[in-house]
Amino acid sequence: MGATTEQITDPMLSKVKLALRIVTNAFDEELTELINAARIDIGIAGVVIPEASDALPIIERAIITYCKLNFGELDRIEMYDRLKAAYDEQKAQLSMSTGYTQWSGTM
Question: From its phi and psi, is residue 7 left (phi > 0), alpha (psi between -120 and 50) or beta?
Answer without folding.
Answer: alpha
